[in-house]
Design a protein that fits this description.
Length: about 110
Amino acid sequence: MWLCAGVFAGPLIWALQMQVGYVLVQGACASGSNLTLHVVTVVALILVAGGAFISLRNWRQAGQQQPSGKDAGPRARSNFMAVLGLSMNAMFFIAILAQGIASFVLHPCQP
């Protein structure tokens, strides 16, 4: 269960951040403040970092070894999923950060 949580944390949090951002942009335009959009971005970044921490913990429990082609047991699969979770969380952390930078540059009322 923790392996799947580490792998799917980044994409799910990114999708939620996008949807919540779309919902809140109309209110941000009415108020003229991007603060709520910034808060959503920061919370999403913290949650993705938590997903990366879960994957790091899973990787440490799996033995911190690179899986070889000879070893196809549960430890190798756990190691693979943990490394996959780390890389996916890193990728979605960067994606969320890039979208958050856009909210600093662009006004919420801008078409």
